[in-house]
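Lab notebook, design round three. We kept the backbone fixed and only want residue identities now. Task for the bench partner: fill in a sequence for the structure below.
Input structure tokens:
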């Protein structure tokens, strides 16, 4: 099944070179794939996976290992961001 995988801020460095400008990539993933299964091949440091959204809905850390994505879902991840 196809999903859209988006990474923001410093996490875009973990996307393939050709996808970094758009900060997203279309992925073919196994039916029932969870968030953690999808991000594992990209090598994102756990402490950098801060804000996780599926179709704009926040996913709590305790749900990321069990929540399965559906065809057409958009998985978006932001690192911790500080500002002032």
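Proposed sequence:
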């Amino acid at each position: 099944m196809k999903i859209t995988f988006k990474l923001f801020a410093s996490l875009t460095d973990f996307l393939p070179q050709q996808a970094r400008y758009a900060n997203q990539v279309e992925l073919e993933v196994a039916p029932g794939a969870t968030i953690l299964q999808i991000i594992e091949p990209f090598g994102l440091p756990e402490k950098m996976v801060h804000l996780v959204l599926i179709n704009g809905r926040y996913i709590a850390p305790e749900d990321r290992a069990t929540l399965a994505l559906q065809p057409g879902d958009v998985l978006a991840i932001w690192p911790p961001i500080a500002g002032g």
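Keep this in mind before ordering anything: The chain has a mean pLDDT of 93.
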